[in-house]
Amino acid sequence: MSDRSDETDGSNGTDTDSRAEQVRYDQARYVEDGQYEPLLSEKDLTRVEIGAVGDGTDDGNSGDGDDGSPLPDHLTRDSLELPELSEPELARHYTRLSQMIYGIDSGPYPLGSCTMKYNPKFTEDVAALPKAAVHPDRSERSLQGTLELLYRLQDYLGRIGGMDAVTLQPPAGAAGEFVGIRVAAAYHEHNGEDHRDEVIVPESAHGTNFATAALGGYDVVSLPSDDEGRVDLEALEAALSEQTAALMLTNPNTLGLFERDIEQIAEMVHDVGGLLYYDGANLNALLGRARPGDMGFDVMHYNVHKTFATPHGGGGPGAGPVGVVDELAPFLPAPRVREGDETKSGEPTYELFDPEHTIGHVHGYQGNWLVLVKTFAYIARLGDAGLSDASAKAVLNANYLASQIEYDIPYEPFHHEFVASAGDQDAADVAKRMLDYGVHPPTTKWPEIVSEALMTEPTEVESKGTLDRLAAAFNAVAAEDDETIEAAPGRTTARRIDQTSAARNPRLSWHAIGNTDDE
Prior knowledge:
This protein is of the alpha/beta class. The protein has helices spanning about 15-25, 40-50, 85-100, 120-125, 145-160, 175-190, 205-215, 235-240, 260-270, 290-295, 305, 370-405, 425-435, 465-480, 480-485, 500-505; strands spanning about 30, 35-40, 165, 200, 220-225, 245-250, 275-280, 300, 320-325, 335-340, 350-355, 420, 445, 455. The model is unreliable at about 1-15, about 25-30, about 45-65 and about 515-519 (pLDDT under 50).
């Protein structure tokens, strides 16, 4: 490299030699003993030295393809101009971007069945405590506080659901479903009943129920609803047989209706040797008031993001604990936590153990630890009275909101959620138009038992004022003509997108960008 230490770039006064050395340092990988291995070639560094980088002369599309980059030429460039922004400009730019994203911190998020509960910030504070940063490979002796929390959470969830034993391992609700079905399969296999190869699923059930049963190796038997939107007992009787492994059921169901015949349903399933599975999606309606175990359910999963205010996974950490009755406890994943011998001072100790006929590990350690910490904190802070109050307000809010909107609601009385019909309007268009009124729309087009369904669940956290604003958005759209709602949204950053193509042909890599011949 030539000596140019006294030369400067006339555009900004930067010493080009110093700039090259800085780039050499920045683009280096540490090897050992203070030595660095350059990541840029001498050719690249020469470009920097003579001012080719950042001089604004390149069009950004002249990649020569011989610099070892795995990217195609049209995605590389020889120069880069960085914007010179003040702090206020930068802060406002990212604030503006954040305001384009709607979330539960922005306003009501009434997605029916998804239960988009507000996540209280104190649980984040608890999870961020230094003592919560626990390595799972530490010895049991040094993990006693952690194991105690997990043990107490198992107990909390067991008592809330009326279950005798709980595993905390599954990392999501869907994973919990799969674990529950695998536990049921292991139970039947252990009893020499491998012939049970059918799982019955109501037509209004969550799509994951059908997928879980099929993924678990079962044939899926779809169960129709009766005229009131509940389980058709005659259809259930016809579907039950010696081949029945389980009936997967949500109570209240996806219409928000409580299955009044649940005890009879449980008896019918048990009479043929099947198990009753509880999808915990709607447990938010029952907290402190009714328990699946008392209704006759044998196995259930808990959606802690829906019921206990932990964040939705969103592709990241989640949790879907599974509870079972005593008969199924030996088949739960390993390990679980139990009380050990007391110390000399009488203090309890906790230890990990493998259930006798365990289906094995389904996730590392005891599941996603910090999500479980948030679950524990939420339950412990609310207590029995708080959980009961949450379910009461969830039901109250849903019924109040329903009383204020103009759309027809064909099935009632409902609990924490309801399904309205958009009537002659297209439910998807209604949802898009509601965005223009500054609120998030409900779930649309499902369950299919309601034509042009608008499935709505405001949760317990929304105030009367918020519900009134949400109802005003519903009613404003209900009064509009088709031309208006078909053109919506008009006030959002993104307008009409091809949702079908986006879902069926996702672009998950730069390989999908531009001309594939350049790859």
